[in-house]
Every structure is written in structure tokens, then in C-alpha cells.
Predict the 3D structure of the following.
Amino acid sequence: MTDPPLTDPSSKPVAPQGSGRARLPEWLAPHRIVLAAIGLAIVWLCVTQMRWDWLPDYGWLIAEGIWRTIWLLVVSCILGFALAVPLGLAQAVGPWYLAAPARVFCTVIRGTPLLLQVWLLYFGLGSLFPSIPWIRQSELWPLLRQAWPYAVLALTLSYAGYEGEVMRGAFRSVPRGQLEAAQAMGMPRLTILRRIWLPQAVMQVLPTLGGETVLQMKATPLVATITVVEIYAVASRVRQDTLITYEPLLLLAVVYMALAGVIVLGFRWLETRAPARAG
């Protein structure tokens, strides 16, 4: 009697060549084709059936409004995240005299409308500063007379209030064993925060940060109520000057959707790069 042939248990059966169907690329999927056709039809109808003769007259103003919207978004998100890190750190591991004010700040910011915060800063501080002589005589007075510093401050504080809570949870979710091991190796606290704690916390909240950044972008039209001319204010001016309603609003929607798409793609790229940087 002959022994049965030995086979490698880890080996997998190989399917014969030519037995499977060739898969179509994802962009050729039927539902994507239907959605693309509907989108092209809507674009064609908008281009051919609506009035766009006002665009050349307001082209530079629209470009300036888009640039100001992007500038407000980038500056407020950078400053707000820089403020959110110590807020989250204070709530996560700080003493009570630091944790309590940070918690109160985040609660107040998240519990009040952004429009109210913008008005309080602009009409409140903006009305208080002129009554202080040394501010009126300082070199900052020409800057404080304008509306955009209050807009940046309000957007920054709003972003910091929300992201402070996010970073609090992110700091607490980092395994304590890694931090204790770094301390046992003699690493300074600032080095532990910079090289271990903060990178891992940020990696965990990247999807949330992306969503909050999109929400921040959609909150920028509120600063138009204090005379800051961004893209929403430009669209409102076009409507008032030309009495055309739908076309400026449609252009505004396209601009916001394009900006949101760029933000989402940017954060997805960061998510794919984060594991490689962490390694």
C-alpha cells in the first residue's frame, strides 16, 4: 500500500486562468454612470437656461470673496487647533484650576450660537475699545476699527471650543503604558507630548477634524453680518444689484461644495499618510 501524497496545508487552490470574469473599473459602475449623467444634465440645464451675463462684471469680486473665505477658514482653523490642544490637555490631565476654566470655556462656546458670539465680540468689544484712551492712541487702533479681526477671533474661539472637547477624548484614549514607558526611559514631558502623545491623539481624531473643518467652512457666511466681504456677501451683493436670485445662490453652492470636497480629500490623504508617519 502506498502512502497518500503530502500536501502543504497552507497552500490555497489556484483557480484556472480564464475562469473568472474581468471586473470593470469602479468609475464604470452602473450607478456611477447614472449619477454622472444626471449631474451633466443638471449642469447643461443650468448653463443654457439661466442668466450668467453678470459674471464678467463681478468676476474679480467673486475671486476676492473666495480667497477671503479660504483665508478665514485656514487662519481660524490653525489658531483654533493651536488653542484646542492645551484646552484638551488641561481637561484630560491638568489640575482642577486649569481643567475647570477649560471645561467652562468649551461648554459656553458649544452652548451658544456662533452668530451670537460674532455679534458679542464685534458690537461688544468694538464698542468698548473706543472708550479706552490708550487703545485709541495705540498702533493697534486702525486694526481694531476693522471688522475682520473680530471675525477671525469669533471663528477661532468657536473652533477651539469644539476641538478642545475632541482633543480631551483623544488624549485620554492614548494608552497610558506608552507614556509610562517613555517616562521610564527618561524622556522629558515636552518630548513625550511632541513625539508620542500628541501625534497619536491627532491620528485618532483626523476624521472628526475633517468634519469639523467642513462645518467651520460653512459657518464663515455668518461674518457677513458684521460687514466682512467673503463669498456669501458677494453673492448677496450680486442679488441686490442685479435682482437675480437663483444664479448667485447656485454659484455659491458650487463654491462651498468644491471647498468641502477639497477639505475631505485633504483629510483622507492625511489619514492614509498617518500610519506611515507613525511608524
In short: The chain has a mean pLDDT of 85. The domain at 55-278 is CATH 1.10.3720.10 (MetI-like fold). DSSP finds twelve helices and no strands in the chain.
